[in-house]
Amino acid sequence: MSGTLTAMKVQKRNPQRVNIYLDGEYAFGLARITAGWLQVGQQLSDEKIALLKAQDSHEAAYQKALGFLDYRPRSRAEVRKNLEKHGYESDVIEQVLERLGRAGLVNDDQFAQTWVDNRSEFRPRGRRMLSLELRQKGLDDEAIESALSGLDEETLATQAARKYQRKLEGLPKPEFRRKLAGFLARRGFGYAVIEPVLERVWQETLTLEDDNA
């Protein structure tokens, strides 16, 4: 495939890519950033062409990863799985992950902490469920333990219980406790955490009912 570079034309459907012509014939496409160093009249050897294609694959994978990261932060495992789904080879994926890591765009420790913080603020969960969710995202034990190290489960369980409390207004104590305990258990809180929260929130409910009487 070696030959003389006779033309570079921007693709109509994707202006970020150019078509490369060797000896007057279309040869292959490249990202504009990859083709930026080429000049018409330049001789391209088979080795140079192979290098250009490898660089192009890396750049395409990198841009694909950036698009995937646009929606929300991702773990390394999530980015790897997405690139594998799009057919990129493992060595290209690892290079892209390293590049993303150097740029601070993929950081499993930061991802884990952000996940826990967001859950704690908007949908409180217990340590067990948070650990399961992070493991499903491909996080390792060290990143998970670091993110969960300062977790105050009783405070989070109380916050979750108070949000759910409105659905239980007017119920007798046994049913109130049973339903609230089931809700908190589904959120990943253990019995030792749930038990004191049940009594606390029940007493708060009685106080509210007295105030509204």
Give your account of this protein's structure.
It is a single chain. By secondary structure, this protein is of the alpha+beta class. The protein is built from 10 helices and 4 strands. The N and C termini lie far apart (87 Å). It is rod-shaped and about 85 Å long. It folds into 3 domains: 3-102, Arc Repressor Mutant, subunit A (Orthogonal Bundle); 108-148, Arc Repressor Mutant, subunit A (Orthogonal Bundle); 153-212. The protein has a 4-stranded antiparallel beta sheet with strand order 3-2-1-4. It has helices spanning 32-35, 46-69, 76-85, 90-102, 108-122, 127-136, 141-148, 153-165, 173-186, 191-212; strands at residues 3-10, 17-22, 25-31, 43-44.
Characterize the main sheet: 4 strands, antiparallel
- Rg from Cα: 28 Å
Strand arrangement in the largest pleated sheet: 3-2-1-4
- The CATH top-level class label of the largest domain: Mainly Alpha
Looking at the structure, what is the overall shape? Answer: rod-shaped
β-strand percent reads: 5-15%
Arithmetic mean pLDDT: 92
Distance between the termini: 87 Å
CATH fold field value of the largest domain: Arc Repressor Mutant, subunit A
Which second-level CATH architecture of the largest domain applies? Answer: Orthogonal Bundle
